[in-house]
Amino acid sequence: AQKITQTQPGMFVQEKEAVTLDCTYDTSDPSYGLFWYKQPSSGEMIFLIYQGSYDQQNATEGRYSLNFQKARKSANLVISASQLGDSAMYFCAMREGRGAQKLVFGQGTRLTINP
Amino acid sequence: GAVVSQHPSRVICKSGTSVKIECRSLDFQATTMFWYRQFPKQSLMLMATSNEGSKATYEQGVEKDKFLINHASLTLSTLTVTSAHPEDSSFYICSAFPGLGDKETQYFGPGTRLLVL
Predict the structure, then answer these.
(1) A19 close to A78: Cβ distance less than 8 angstroms
(2) Which of A6, A89, B7, B91: CA 20 to 30 A from A19?
């Protein structure tokens, strides 16, 4: 079974609009972390936001927020006021347990911001 | 902070040669580093976990004799692709784990594009 599922291969959004990228996960470990990374065409992986399984509040980092619904096992990324520079691949990832554990990535969503 | 570098950024080699890729944590120590591979239009797949001073842990299906990993210091891990073949052409990216903290995140290097002719 897939541990991380991103169901949107591609998304097209008008500049300045908000966009939600979906991510669902599957784990039986009570302690886990959820991450979103942005990968532009250059290939680098840029860390955007993190949500711990025990965090009570949804994480926010500037224009990025994570809509964490634990019971539904979803961790959607919300980008407010999208910009042309937001066009990239976006990956959701999960770490099971704590510490130096491997990340499991979803298949990614290609976001295109139209002017 | 939390900067990770990779060298080289791009390499083209002939089939049968070996290629070494370096991953360095520039402003922190990393007892654990990870090596991922990404084929075009696909996601990142973990190849191995590199631990300073001990043998690397390889994921199922990854040949440890072909992808040699050495984590000789707290800031450097190397991946050597031995006897490279065209099917090894891929984007190789490393990450480093700086230690427990509020995010416990890994920081990624810029990646290395390998093309084997």
Answers:
(1) yes
(2) B91
Separation CA A59–CA B106 (nearest Å): 17
pLDDT tens for chain A, 115 residues long, are 679 999 999 999 999 999 999 999 999 999 999 999 999 999 999 999 999 999 999 999 999 999 999 999 999 999 999 999 999 999 999 998 877 688 999 999 999 999 9
Phi, psi of B21 (to 5 degrees): -120, 130
Comparing CB atoms, the residue among B32, B42, B105 nearest residue A47 is B105
Contact flag A43-B111 (C-beta cutoff 8 Å): yes
Cα B33 to Cα B73: distance, rounded to the nearest angstrom: 11
Q: Using only C-alpha atoms, what is the Rg of chain A?
A: 14
Task: Give the B-side interface with A, CB within 8 Å.
Answer: 31-32, 34, 38, 42-46, 49, 91, 93, 95, 97, 100, 103-111, 113
At B78-91, the pLDDT tens digits run 999 999 999 999 99
- The pLDDT confidence band at residue B65, using thresholds 50, 70 and 90, is very high
Give dist(CA A74, CA A22) in Å, integer: 8
Contact B104 A105 (CB under 8 A): no
Q: Residue type at B69?
A: I
